[in-house]
Amino acid sequence: MAVLVQKYGGTSVGDAEKIRHVAGRIAAARRAGNSIAVVVSAMGDTTDRLIELAESVSGAPDPRELDVLLSTGELVSCTLVTMALREIGEEAVSMSGAQAGIRTDTAHGSASIVEFDAERVQQALDAGRIVIVAGFQGVTHEMDVTTLGRGGSDTTAVALAAALGAERCEVYTDVDGIYTADPRIVPDARKLSEIGYEEMLELASYGAKMHPRSIELAAWYNTPVLVASSARDVPGTLIHEVAPTEAGVEGEGMEVANKVRGVTYERGVARITLRAVPDRPGIAAAVFEPLAESNISVDTIVQNASAERLTDLSFTVDRTDLRAALEVTEGVAGAIGAGECVSHDNLGQVSIVGTGMQNAPGVAAVMFSALAEAGVNIEMITTSQIRITCVVDEGQVNDAVRTLHDAFELGEG
Ligand code: ASP
Ligand code: MG
């Protein structure tokens, strides 16, 4: 029997009625002759509410305790879905991450799966049961509960699909697929019928709503992921291995339409600039090592060419990490004899992504001039082979996204 893994997001299991609806969908897939394992997120905004609760009793909730607390959100939804399935006559059983065999490292709040022994899930499937696994969580070798970072249920689902050798992982959510841009910002954004892992990874890391690690895993195990709506029966987007676009192969001259697959964005970006940094070996390590040790992830980094052996070093972090990052950086500045630390906390970023833009020099120029015409100032630029990201003022993010979507002719018709 083919094994199918399905994942339902928080809004899809947001109340009792939706849970019954989801149970009906799972039962239908089962009756179609599949062996089914399901991963669920916590109901609605449960995780946010649990975080608020923790913060209402503690200024800095203990990471171990917080993870146990947050893991309960998914326990609630997975048991309720299981009960709803049993109610309609399906043999179903729920499992926490630990029961399902998910081992992680000890990084509370953003743990990585290090081992997935799906034996127990497999046995239940073999016995003809539907297995409902609580997403977003695992357990360390010391049996401490961990969580995988916000949105981590996607990663649980893909990891489960890989561990079971499932044909594919179906992710059901409140949007019906991956779009060329966020349809709430760009009304004529187009739904993609398919997208490659690489492109999706760039999109997922820069705004589009999938847990980036889930895409890394899907690519590594070559597990296709279908993203579709749990409410409406319309075709979704298949994330899988795709050949480079025809446009990408042509790759000639200034013809830039079709080289870009999508536009994505992020808000809540903050920048720290460390001025008058002595330009000698070891300085970057001195700045970024302590940040890494404090678990602060740094995104864009720019170092100027030095004048008089002094340089400016700028980098971006999540706005929520700004305070902690400033503390660390100010400490380092003193130690290495650098000048002042300045920060700016009202930034965002926009990115264009597409494998077609490799070796297509016109693309960057089109991006920059489109932003210039729209009066959007570019604060910082970073690139990968298949992505160009510009850090801009947060208030201009929407304009920038619309402008780029137009410039690369990504819309309908
Ligand atoms: N419930 C968790 C969150 O809100 C994990 C998830 O939904 O994937 O981030
Ligand atoms: Mg999600």
In brief:
By secondary structure, the protein is α/β, with parallel strands linked by helices. It is 36% helix and 26% strand.
Task: Kindly describe this structure.
The protein is α/β, with parallel strands linked by helices. It has helices at residues 16-31, 46-57, 63-87, 97-100, 119-126, 153-164, 197-205, 212-221, 246-250, 283-293, 322-336, 362-373, 397-407; strands spanning 3-8, 35-40, 92-95, 102-104, 113-116, 130-134, 137-139, 145-147, 168-173, 194-195, 225-229, 237-239, 262-278, 298-303, 310-318, 341-353, 380-384, 387-393. Strands 3-6-2-1-9-11-12-10 form an 8-stranded mixed beta sheet, sandwiched between helices. The chain has a 6-stranded antiparallel beta sheet with strand order 14-15-13-16-18-17. β11 (225-229) and β12 form a beta hairpin. The chain is globular. The relative contact order is 0.11. The structure holds aspartic acid (ASP) and magnesium ion. Residues 10, 41-42, 47, 73, 135-136, 150-153 line the site of aspartic acid. Aspartic acid binds next to loops.
